[in-house]
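Key idea: predict the complex, not the pieces.
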Amino acid sequence: NAGVMQNPRHLVRRRGQEARLRCSPMKGHSHVYWYRQLPEEGLKFMVYLQKENIIDESGMPKERFSAEFPKEGPSILRIQQVVRGDSAAYFCASSPPSDYEQYFGPGTRLTVT
Amino acid sequence: GQNIDQPTEMTATEGAIVQINCTYQTSGFNGLFWYQQHAGEAPTFLSYNVLDGLEEKGRFSSFLSRSKGYSYLLLKELQMKDSASYLCAVRVIEKLVFGTGTRLLVSP
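Result:
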């Protein structure tokens, strides 16, 4: 059973461009979570999604950030008009229904130049 | 508000025992997790406590006191490969609220 997959692993964008981060959960997992880790800081919750539904987006910045988890395909975290402060590691985690453990993917390291 | 405190850094010697403390004040509580994270890698699950007491798993043990808002992770027979960051996280409803992590350096 493959683990949580994220791609790309590294992404470089210039200020003002768009960044798209993809997350494929483990087989059988219908819950997806996105976390951001700024340099020298802890992981911060961004958004929790189930298939076709955003359940909790209390950690998402109000502007430029959006997330989706369509019926088919990976979950996407989209950052429009990136700024230098968006440079961070973005981790996706997944869990099956009715299970407490979240399994983390390897992360996408976004660098904004 | 959510507040989770753990020491920033600890050092220990190979073969020794180390205890990493975590105190928390959160708006809800559905369990406490400990994760290990090596530099540049994903967090990996170590333990989960939802009831008070000690959970033991090999060289790692985790303790929880809900009334005190307190947990610790105990690592025994330290090995060099245990050098990593250890993250305390409280599950609030479905999301995890993380502390900033404790960087553990194990020396020979």
